[in-house]
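Students often ask why we bother encoding 3D structure as a string. The short answer is that it lets us treat folding as translation between two languages. Here is a chain of 133 residues written in the first language.
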Amino acid sequence: MSDDTTDWTDLREFKGVDITQSFLLSWGTEANSLLIDVDLFLCADHPFYEKPRPAEKSCFRPAYLEFPWCTRVAPVGDGKARSISETIGTLGNGKISGFRRTGDGQYEINGEFGAVDIIAERPMVRLKTHYIG
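And here it is in the second language, the structure alphabet:
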């Protein structure tokens, strides 16, 4: 592990969410950004948190994890040269178990879909605006 490794819990973008309780739904791109479509678990201290309805156990909101100026996406340890579009077409979905910054502009997300390296600018959490609760 690098001395520059930072767990998601120490990244300001993830304040008020729990990435390890969230679900990755799909991978996509827009312009020069990687977009990871997620059902994001919101903690009680998040500004958009709402008390779950009786049939619900937690507060989830549709969101994107956006990685601007993404230049690489690859399964951890995969040295094959592929385009981002080709790579994300092979990646699955599922519960997220971890996310960390592994260096300057380098990130790793892992879960039921495997472990994936990402090289991009600092990520942003974007709640989807068309959500109607």
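Translate back mentally: Strands lie at 6-7, 23-30, 33-42, 59-67, 72-75, 94-103, 106-111, 114-119, 124-127. Keep this in mind for the problem set.
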